[in-house]
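In this supplementary section we document a worked example of the pipeline. Step one takes a protein sequence of length 352 as its only input; no multiple sequence alignment statistics are reported here. Step two produces a three-dimensional model, which step three serialises into structure tokens for compact storage. The input and output of this example are shown verbatim.
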Amino acid sequence: MQEPAVGGDNAVDGAVILPRVKPFVLLGSVVEYLHLDLGSINGGIFGSFFPSIQVNTTRFTDEILRVGFNYKFDEDRPGTNAAMNAFAALPRAPAAPPAVFLGWTGWYVGVNAGYIDSVGRTNTDAPFSVTDSRGTGDAGNLANTATNQFNNRPDGFLGGVQAGYNFQFSPSLVAGWEADIQGSTLRENLGATATASGGAFRPAWVTTTTVSNHLDYLGTVRARIGVTPTPDVLFYSTGGLAFGGVRSSTQINFNNTDAVAVPGSTSGSLSETRFGWTAGGGAEWMFSSNWTAKLEYLYYNLGAAKYSTGGYAVDLTPTGFAGFGIVSLATSTTPRFEGNIVRVGVNYRFGG
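The serialised model returned by step three reads:
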């Protein structure tokens, strides 16, 4: 019998070539089709009794369709998945930044109202001169009665308008400026009566002093800088120029218990716009896209204003021994305009 011989179109030196369809991946699984060809076998049979030869050829082929799941090791190592690495390396458009709320930027106008007080003292002074040194004692007593220091603390109401501009540099930082002007009811009426003895042979001096101070209006031009712990709340500090319309008047009446001494009086007044400074802070709440409400504290200082209130001269001779001379007083008043403001306000913001 002849040994079977392996041969055929797809057989080379006993190796089997398997034509293969490229697999594709679906949801992490593999679906694959294969055509299997193991080649052919040629063989023959020789007859025992009759001379004959039977030759046959057998070919081994098959079709395979299969599914499977794969697990890949060392997935993160460069080069193990060239396709995915190449895809990851492709340039991508930058991600859109998150939306930033910069709603405090813009112009605004508003109104305000609140409380104002004055903590500045008011002094009246009366330096003297005398034509005879023997009258110095009486002159000093007379001057003392016209010298006072008032430390009252009046208060009142103020209300007005403001306008300004904010610029929001970042989600948490806001800066800008604001100007405002308010009318004020702040009034201060001061009074004192002083008595000084003229000595054993002289009558007593009785002097009455009255002072009236007014702050008619107050305005400021200030810088503001603050932080926003939440998008709709602003805490800020502020400071800058302050200006105000002030008035002051003084009346001094001199009397003596001696009927011979002639009573006298003197007066003076001041009315001007004064400039100074202010500083403070506050909180503002944006309760809608165009409206805000604020609570604010300010300290203002317009300084001291000294003005003359005239003078008084009296002949001391009729009130005592002859030759004591004439005493002269040059009086003045110095009020200080400074105090505190606590107010609320509402602003309308353009472009909200």
